[in-house]
């Protein structure tokens, strides 16, 4: 004769989960809506189309910084092929663009 030590319908007190009292869900709903807006904005930044006219203008404007037009055209072609790099380039200020250009051209020489 085999005895069963537990039954399926009985749950011990230590295994029961306590439930939090109901709270005002409006704060959570507002927070959720804000997080959705942030996620959409980040997705647009990361996956949205690249404005190649703007990219070309910003790259070629660097002629004023002493860069050769041929070198800038090569950098533009690279950025056009690599949309993530193009988005990052467009997001940078002039000083950071110059640092990027120096780094890119240095690896190509």
What would you say this structure looks like, in words?
Helix content is 63%, strand content 0%. It is built from five helices and no strands. The chain has a domain at 42-108. The radius of gyration is 29 Å and the shape is elongated. The protein is an all-alpha fold. The longest helix has 23 residues, at 25-47.
What are the SSEs and their pairings?
Blueprint lengths: L24 H23 L4 H9 L8 H13 L1 H9 L2 H15 L1
Helix pairs in contact: 2-3
Rg, please? 29 Å
Tell me the structural class: mainly alpha
User: Span between N and C termini?
Assistant: 86 Å
Provide the low-confidence segments as ranges.
none
Arithmetic mean pLDDT: 82
| Percentage beta strand | under 5%
The percent range for helix content is 55-70%
> What's the order of the H and E elements?
HHHHH
Count of beta strands: 0
How many H/I helices?
Answer: 5
Oligomerization category of the chains in this entry: single chain
Query: Which shape, going by the Cα principal axes?
Result: elongated
> How many strands, what sense, and barrel or not for the largest sheet?
none
């Amino acid at each position: 004769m085999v005895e069963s030590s537990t039954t399926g319908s009985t749950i011990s007190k230590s295994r029961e989960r306590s439930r939090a009292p109901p709270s005002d869900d409006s704060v959570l709903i507002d927070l959720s809506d804000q997080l959705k807006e942030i996620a959409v904005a980040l997705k647009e930044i990361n996956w949205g189309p690249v404005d190649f006219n703007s990219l070309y203008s910003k790259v070629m404007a660097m002629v004023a910084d002493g860069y050769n037009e041929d070198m800038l055209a090569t950098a533009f072609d690279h950025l056009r092929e690599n949309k993530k790099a193009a988005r990052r380039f467009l997001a940078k200020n002039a000083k950071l663009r110059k640092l990027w250009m120096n780094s890119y051209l240095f690896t190509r020489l």
